[in-house]
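Q: For a teaching handout, I want to show students what a protein-ligand complex looks like in token form. Below are the inputs, and the small molecule is protoporphyrin IX containing FE. Please produce the holo structure.
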Amino acid sequence: MVFIISSGLVLVALGAWLIYTYFLSPLASIPNAGFLAPVSRLLWEFPVEYQGRITLELPKLHKRLGPLVRIGPNQVSFYSLDIYKKVHAPNSPFAKDPRVYSQFVQDGHPALFSITDPKEHAQRRRHMGIVFNRSKVPALTDMMVGTIDSWVKYLASVSAKGPVDLGPTCRALESDIVSKFAFGNAIGAVKSLHLGKEVAVIKENDIKSSKMPVYTNFPILVGLWHYLADWIFKVTGLVLSSVTSSQQFDQWADSQLLAVKDTEKAPSLSFLKVMSEERIPEQSALSEAKEMLGPGTDTTSATLAHILYALSLNQTFQEDLVSDLQAAGWSVDMSALESIPRLVASVKEGIRWTGAAAAMLPRIVPQGGYLLAGKHLPGGTMISSSPIWYLRDETAFPDPERYRPSRWLVQENTEATSLRDDYYVPFSKGASTCVGIHFAYLELFLSLSQLLKRYSIHPVKSSRVTALDHEAILPPRREWVAAVPIDRLEVMLLER
Ligand code: HEM
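A: Here is the structure, written as tokens, with protoporphyrin IX containing FE included.
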């Protein structure tokens, strides 16, 4: 009898909640992404998101349904540059959603990317400006050039054997640059490639991001996984591969922190060192350095790989670019590189075309609610949008799937150029705009120019080149936190 009554009560409560979420909720008037969206984001989205297609599918839905689409009981996706500018304004009241950003926290010490409290975030950002501001980044040139030089030498041995697989190759370079910057010593990713391996902790970033939908909807699963892995390790001595590699990485990172404290062994320049002098608690500085390896590596490496692939298909543009670099004496000076229009155009277009930072950047509507696109969204609603949707906007970037550096060579002030500049938000905007923007530009300018100094880039299958000025079409990809091409991006490198 008790069972029948309690089951009945559960059913009534469930029925009432369903009526609420479908018909009475303040979000009920917003079009649903799928029939089950008002019940659970995971239910309608998981199959698509797990395949890395959510940021590819949602813009199509927005085209049909408008700027706001309900993607969960209290979650809304938006696609509108006006809303994007409000949500990501410098003093925006929309804070980062802790449910998502907490998944990136290393060892319980939130770093800039994962700090969600606006005041704490602003304070950490001021500290980090000491190394990331435009005026400071040129000091990293020698470190970057040295690392790129070893990579270019490594390429000689692989390119002699045949096609170069750009994905792991560029990832190794960028991981070495970022780790050398962050810790003072490179993680040894290029060396590892020499031995035919990829550093596991870097490879795992992709795998981790593919599990984000589960993690963010069921954070308890993350804890459970770590608990289980630890338990299996203690009882059986068996180590699960991802735990091993992150343990190895943690040990390596801890040893770098010790080296920083040792005045004799301390590397001359490292983010860890600068931060520890800035009175940031050492464990926070360590987490900051570790966390940087994700956003600082996947993005620039994917971009570099896409640019090299696109240049292999556009010999005329490539040779014009080489002539410009030659005329500039293969300079490594940041200001000189910034004044080579074709280099800037190829990198800017590469950043736009690759759209490497695909994640939907979730923010929380402040208390009291907010009016967006004519709808009142209650406080606590999670709203999100991917910056890369704006990079593919057809009005701002005609033929968005094409790698077309010439769009950036037009300097006149026209409606088209102001639209182009307005929609170029690869690093997002506002208080959380990418802190690594100048770092990324310098890294890409140098990697691209130093590679072109030694090699010409050619397509693997010449049949793909339909014309000399062939504009590459964006290779099929999966998009999670970062974008990952489905097929290998391969080129032939020939010594000049
Ligand atoms: C093409 C290269 C890059 C792209 C497209 C890119 C994109 C982005 C985007 C869209 C965000 C905003 C994320 C959010 O609001 O949650 C971001 C934040 C961030 N990026 Fe980058 N990024 C790039 C390179 C780098 C590099 C090279 C580094 C470091 C060496 C870096 C470090 C960071 C950090 C620490 C944040 C957090 C900033 C904050 O919350 O204040 N990024 N990046």
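A: Two things your students might notice: The chain has one domain: 111-357+393-495. The pocket of protoporphyrin IX containing FE is lined by residues 112-113, 125, 178, 292, 295-296, 299-300, 303, 351, 356-357, 361, 387, 426-428, 432, 434-436, 439-440 (CB under 6 Å).
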